[in-house]
Amino acid sequence: KIDDRSNVTPGFKFNEYEVLGTPLRIEVGGKEAQNKELTLCFRHNLNKVKVKYNSKEISKEIEEMLKSMHSSLYETSKKKTLDNIKEGKTWDDFMEIIKSKKIAVEAGAM
């Protein structure tokens, strides 16, 4: 979707799409158009990447970047989840694990 509204600033648009959770923003301003490039802005790590515009290659490049972003998000989520799982043997163990905002599982269940 192209946001071509002229009644709001680019900063307003960037913030609006950030709030909506848009994972990738493609910027094309005056400098980008002049240099025949795009700026890709990734929400998950705040990286900005400039790429030359080539209609055959740009879609492949973006697809690969989105796959990489997905893998990165998945691995980060998986690590955080596994790091927060704690085994307990007794009721008191479970209560301590829960109080520490971790995930309690029965000892030997993993």
Please indicate the percent range of residues in DSSP E strands (runs of 2 or more): 15-25%
Query: Termini distance?
Result: 45 Å
* Individual helix count: 4
pLDDT < 50 stretches? none
Structural class: alpha+beta
Q: Tell me the strand order in the biggest sheet.
A: 1-2-3
Number of strands: 5
Shape: elongated
Largest sheet: 3 strands, antiparallel
Order of helices and strands: HEHEEHEHE
Rg from Cα:
22 Å
Mean pLDDT over all positions: 89
Helix content: 40-55%
Protein described:
- The structure is a single chain.
- By secondary structure, the protein is an alpha+beta fold.
- The protein is built from 4 helices and 5 strands; from the N terminus they run H-E-H-E-E-H-E-H-E.
Concise overview:
The chain has 110 residues and is an alpha+beta fold. The protein has four helices and five strands.
Q: What are the salient characteristics of this protein?
A:
110 residues; 3-stranded antiparallel sheet; 21% strand
